[in-house]
Amino acid sequence: MQLFTGRKVVLASMHGKEAVIAPLLKKELGIQLILNEQMNTDRFGTFSGEIDRTLSPMETLRQKCLEGMKLAKCELGIATEGSFGAHPFLLGLSAHEEIILLIDQKNELEFMAKCLVTETNFQGRELPDLHALMAFVDEVQFPNQGIILKDQSANFYQAYKDARTVDELRHQFETCQQTYGSVYAETDMRAMRNPTRMKVIQEVCEKLIEKMKVTCPTCQTPGFDVVEQVPGLPCSLCCMPTDSIRLERFACQKCQHSEEKPRKDHRTCEDPMFCSFCNP
Predict the structure, then answer these.
(1) Residue 231, exposed/middle/buried by CB under 10 A (0-12, 13-18, 19+)?
(2) What is the pLDDT of residue 164?
(3) What's the pLDDT at 149?
(4) 6: exposed, middle or buried (Cβ count in 10 Å: 0-12, 13-18, 19+)
(5) Could you give the angle at the alpha carbon of 199 between the alpha carbons of 7 and 95, nearest 5°?
(6) CA nearest to 13, candidates 148, 136, 144, 192
(7) How many helices and strands in the chain, by DSSP H and E?
(8) How far is residue 116's CA from residue 122's CA, in Å, rounded to a whole number?
(9) Is the backbone of residue 30 left (phi > 0), alpha (psi -120 to 50) or beta?
């Protein structure tokens, strides 16, 4: 894509995400990814809880990109942000939402994509003894998946990270237990210690690239994307509008050209069980 070919983009990360992002950007868009050693993304929040994330995920992403571009003196910036917790729609399931943002300061464009998946290893528990630690090690497949030990889940005094062997982890456990009297273990959600998350980062980057490849039919600006989902899919029984999505509105960031398109799955009606008239 000519708008990006030969340009450099700074990755606002210190957690190894370049392993999956750099090859995709190079192959699909001709963009060379660079890093900046001065970048400290931990100051925007840490998964282990030393620093709380105070901004929304999108605003955190934007600030990361802007700082990365400033430090690297680069006009393209990219970053991802992960969130973990209860699934917003599926009761009882955990979820992982990963958002990726690419900012092009030169052309005043932003490109965003997100993935919401139930495939996540986000978990933690109290460990009363070494036997419980070894059970947790086997369950999460350490050392392939990193483990963080703390004296308690919240309001803790110290977090022990970056153990690479069972012996190192056992030493951290014994030190924490002897010092504080209790040990809490959790999966390390940093990308470079979490293969499950790294896989999702690759997926969301692929999704971003596909969005960037869609150009405006009027001015050919990349990123002709969905800006609104319009409800009103009619009920198959009574034909009254439901809350389900009827169509999507696409718009260009540059010329503001917009188009309404039907659902990608080509559904033209909704099941009566989701109709507030047939099933109040």
Answers:
(1) exposed
(2) 97
(3) 98
(4) exposed
(5) 120
(6) 192
(7) 5, 12
(8) 14
(9) left
Architecture of domain 8-120+192-213: Alpha-Beta Complex (3.90)
Instruction: Give the distance, in angstroms, between the CA of residue 136 and the centroid of all CA atoms in the same chain.
Output: 25
For β-strands 94-104 and 76-86, DSSP reports them as: antiparallel
Q: Supply the pLDDT for residue 210.
A: 97
Would you say the C-alpha torsion 9, 12, 14, 19 has a positive or negative sign? negative
Give the Cα separation of 21 and 11 in Å (integer): 9
Question: Tokens for 65?
Answer: 């990109």
Overall residue count recorded for the chain in this entry? 280
| Predicted local confidence at residue 91, as pLDDT | 78
DSSP string, 33-66: EE--TT--GGGG--TTSSS---S-HHHHHHHHHH
**What local confidence, expressed as pLDDT, does residue 188 receive?**
97
- The reported pLDDT for the residue numbered 114 is 97
- Token digits for 202? 């690759």
Q: Mean pLDDT in runs of 10 for the chain (280 residues)?
A: 92 97 97 94 90 93 97 97 87 90 97 95 95 97 97 95 97 98 97 96 98 96 95 96 96 95 92 93
What is residue 110's predicted lDDT score, i.e. its pLDDT? 97
* Residues facing 10 on adjacent strands: 34, 77
Give the tokens for residue 257.
Answer: 């050209």
Q: Is the peptide bond before 23 cis (omega within 30 degrees of 0)?
A: no
**Cα-Cα-Cα-Cα dihedral of 233, 238, 240, 242, to 10°?**
-50
- What residues contact 160, with CB distance under 8 A and at least 6 apart? 148, 149, 150, 172, 175, 176
Give 27's Cβ-side CA count (13 Å radius).
Answer: 8
